[in-house]
Amino acid sequence: MIEPYNAVGLIPTFWGIRTRADIGHNIEHLESLTKAAFWLSNLDIPVRLLAIPEGALQGFNDEILDADHTEYAHTCAIDIPGPETDRLAALARKWNVFLMAQAKARHPDWPDLFFNVGFVLSPEGEIVLRHHKLNALLPVERSVSPHDLFDWWVEKYGRTLDAFWPVADTEIGRLGVMMAMEGSYPENGRGLALNGAEVVYRASLPAPFTENDFFEISNRARALENNMYVVAPNIGGYHLYPDSPHAIDAGGGRSMIVNYRGTVVGKQLDTNGSTYVSGVIDIEALRHHRANAQISNWAKDIRAELAQIVYERPVYPKNRYLDAKPPKHEEFRREVTERQVELLQSRDIWRKPAGAADQAAPAPGRPGRKSPSRDFGPGPVEHTP
């Protein structure tokens, strides 16, 4: 039996980095903030899970400054394991917790590229899970996704749930990672749930998405539809550089922990300085609900054959960076984002807004649909499975 426990999500002030060596200052602050968070959080129900939000180690300077991808990979990305994860492992051992965190990191097979990697450390300091982010905050994120190297990834790791949505089976439940914008795509929550996930890390998201309920709605939806906990601490004040005197509230707060029924069980609106959010995780209650509910344990009713029809035709292009590196923001918008919109319009999934040129006429006999000959977009956009 797994006793109920507290999960704590840190909401740290952090500093953007110029080099990998600058990460040490952020980790030092996380160590101090953990001590402050555990001062009261450990008094009633023991803390067994500590979550550190995305950006807390390195910031987001690769994205904000539109950095050259390869240069950032060489000067700022980390290795997992490495000195930075060793310090976090010591933190996990000190407080006897599982620790969830994130970093921009290299893969040993791709030294000139970097990924956005979520990882979990055990109370013994062992890395028990690594998840490579699948969906980015496009077009501004600089990291590559396994989908950008899809054919290679499948050849190396397989075409399985574990290859893309890994889950760690631990003494505090089954843990998974769904970072930031990944939580905006229902497929990621469902992939984790169907691989057994019970507690999922979802951090961080910037303003304005937090300020207009985007973050809370998607957190609660993923938790409810998959009957899983979502631990979602957001970032605190962001110093753009290590020597920047003033912090910017780039996250907008709204850190939270959501239970398996979509109910918020811990919430922290503030981002003025460094703080934390905490809430109780009850794995046995989750398992009881999944086993006994007749309606709201949704996964038992998935019509998989119908879902497969929804995804038969590819939309976003795979293998983009097998032989290239991620481009600058403007080039990405022009070469990818705009073409993806055109693709959905060419398939008549989206209709062009009023006043847009070349509004397609409905096909004869099929109101509102295009003829088969016009069902596909330009050659560079279409992709075969």
TrEMBL record:
Q: Which CDD domains match?
A: nitrilase_4 (cd07582)
Ordered alphabetically, the record's keywords are: Hydrolase
Q: Which Pfam families match?
A: CN_hydrolase
One GO MF term = hydrolase activity, acting on carbon-nitrogen (but not peptide) bonds, in linear amides
Against InterPro entries, the record matches this protein to: Aliph_Amidase/BUP, C-N_Hydrolase, C-N_Hydrolase_sf
| Sequence ranges of Low complexity compositional bias | 352-363
Q: Which domain of life is it from?
A: Bacteria
The CN hydrolase domain is annotated at 7-283
Residue numbers spanned by region Disordered: 347-385
Stated name of the protein: Hydrolase
Species of origin reads Amycolatopsis acidicola
